[in-house]
Amino acid sequence: MDCKKEDALRRGPWLEEEDERLVKFVTLLGERRWDSLARVSGLKRSGKSCRLRWMNYLNPSLKCGPMSQEEEIIIFQLHALWGNKWSNIARRLPGRTDNQIKNYWRTHLRKKMEAQNYDKIIDWRGNKGEELLHKHKETEIMWTRTKTREHGFDETVKEYKQKNMESDKETNGVICETERFGVMNSPYENRIIDWISKSDANIFEDHSSSSTDNNININVGSWWFQEIMDFEEVSCSLWS
DNA sequence: AATGGCCCCAACCGCCGTTTC
DNA sequence: AGAAACGGCGGTTGGGGCCAT
């Protein structure tokens, strides 16, 4: 009698040797085609299960240890804006997974939120909010610096534009809702939204016409950035 | 020491959008 | 163009560990 393939698949907690094998094959084949990877590796696991194990546990870029107070506040703030968009929130917390954040919210923050005065925690007029804004700014600068070095200016601009417009336009829509409940909008979001509305579809376009290697003109809607040596300065201009 | 209740989190499930053939 | 495969996401579950009694 033929058995269904699924019957042969293992479920439940992963063994150490399974982890080792998975790490080996992900290193070899990359983080994609999980079904093929599962087959080729000989692991009696579904591709989905392999992906999940890697993404949520084995990936070396994951951050271990408890959530910091700063991370906690970011989760509070972003959850207020986006709701249960765990993957979106996770993107703003390097090294943390959507699953981690989801679990953390359910076990820690939800109770806290119910117990405490929520508005006080996410009020960006407080010092903590300003501190976090600076942290976020630093993260953005590091990102643009690395990307520019690795992929060049054009690719970085394209990616930056997409990255921020997608998540923050979405944020823009939710803010109207949250404001009704007295939730403060962060200076960061205000600035991004303002920036997007001014720039619309023209962000970073037209820089080639009169640019040189070290001197490029960048059109952001009605604004022009001149003599910009490094892309990070464009990013900086958002915050200053 | 035994046990029951609670908490935490890894893993699973089902759905849906995207990509590939 | 359409079907199948794949990947991502949010919700849920179950088992292990901790703690109070």
UniProtKB/TrEMBL annotation:
Identify the keywords attached in UniProt to this record, alphabetized.
Answer: DNA-binding, Nucleus, Repeat, Transcription, Transcription regulation
Is RNA-binding a UniProt keyword of this protein? no
Instruction: Enumerate the subcellular locations listed in this protein's record, separating them with semicolons.
Output: Nucleus
User: What InterPro entries does the database record attribute to this sequence?
Assistant: EOBI/EOBII-like_plant, Homeodomain-like_sf, Myb_dom, SANT/Myb
Cross-referenced Pfam families, in alphabetical order?
Answer: Myb_DNA-binding
Indicate the segments forming the Myb-like domain, all copies. 6-58, 59-109
Q: What is this protein called?
A: Uncharacterized protein
Q: Which organism is it from?
A: Brassica campestris (Field mustard)
